[in-house]
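# step 3/5: fold
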Amino acid sequence: MCDWFFRAMGGTLKITLIATLISLRWGSDAWGGQLEDLLLENKQITIDQWVQLKAEEEKREAASLEASRSVGDAPVRERWYEKISIRGFAQFRYNYQTNPLLINDQGDRALGSNDQFSLRRARLIVSGQPHERVFIYVQEEFAGLTGTDTANGLGTQTPGGTNRNTGVNNTAQLRDFYADIFLTSDKEWRIRAGQSKVPFGFENLQSSQNRLPFDRSDALNSAALNERDVGLFLYYTPTIIRERFRRLVESGLKGSGDYGMIGLGVYNGNGNLNNVFELNKGKHVILHTSYPHEFSNGQIVEVGMDAYTGQYVISTTPVQTNNQPQLVAPVVTNNGNYLDERVAWNFVVFPQPFGLQGEYTIGRGPQLSKDLTQVNLSSLRGGYLQFYYNYKCDTYCVSIFPYIRHQEYFGAKKFEPNAPKYNVRETELGLEYQFNAALELTVAYSWVQRTSDDPTQLPAVPGGFCGTGSGIPCSQTPYQLQTGNLIRFQLQWNF
């Protein structure tokens, strides 16, 4: 009886010892992978139990790394250099246009009187998670344009028309610098502080690295300068939705990333970017909603709505009106402070393989009057519709995306001096060819009709660039309506 009792107690102590050691091993990385080896060497566990312990350990480590990931970025590890992710992309372009006065300072500023090669974007992104509750993100642009050739400046006159290339090209500019502060351990609630994208519209949040058309649509992109501002944003994303947002990007379906299923933000609202100081004490407030629904067949459809309101301060520059031979600056009210509010709706049927995407916005904001003498509060509207297809390749490529997008916008550009009214109609037909994950080529042809942002008195261009054949009269006043065609090429490499 006693012999049986001591044998039982010995077995119980042995099991207890093993369980204690294993629990210590799980709770501390200092044990490394040596405990299982030690138990096996002392014949305390069998080889099958050793294999099982190793497999469970690998599963725990993988789960821990996955849980530590932030919004689609690097996992947390103990070694500092494994907490940092460095990546980037660059876009090399060539534009050919039939109208040298067809310019788009809001989009590709290389468009102008001279067809040229240009480095549209050269981005370097550094991100990481120094703590399980803190994620940092820094994005630098090395193909920036500063000086007079910006959306807030003027070009210079040349015999061929307006030269939009009078600024300093290929300068370093800060695009993003923010921290995500996770309020909960499951990372569903977070505060984003710093300079980041304003969550207004799907295409604005979608990275240029993933977007098919060469430029963002005027209607949505005219809401925030360079899509970014400085402020605080509260985001809520359930775990399953966060995984869905990440999958839409990583699987090549052209997702926008995780900007919250619901978001609420407060930001400067006056283009406070790259040393442009805030111009009033008021702040813009924005509400963002987006929900990607996955059907039983795997098809994902995303719908969303965004709205913001605030006060925007415009700048003015002298302009020659129809009735005055001299240059006169438009009259502004309330010291240049104007109500700035918009609401936008979007939907995306992700390309599996057919895709359909659309957005529309309405709102009110400052706008130059028709007689060019004053700036009034006026309405705006516009949007786009895009159809595309995702063809998966087996050889010579990864994917091919043919697409067609039509966009319209009728409203002011508040970032430009005098907030001139724009009339934009553009249809772009293109194809993106992905050789591999690191290299892709996009070719597009566009039919364009848009208002010029030049406030100076422009003569008619020989050859009728100002609308011949389109039924649009040639105006000799500032902000002429220009028409033309574009042929564009873009080579993009990712690293």
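# step 4/5: annotate
The chain is about 15% helix and 45% strand.
# step 5/5: archive (pending)
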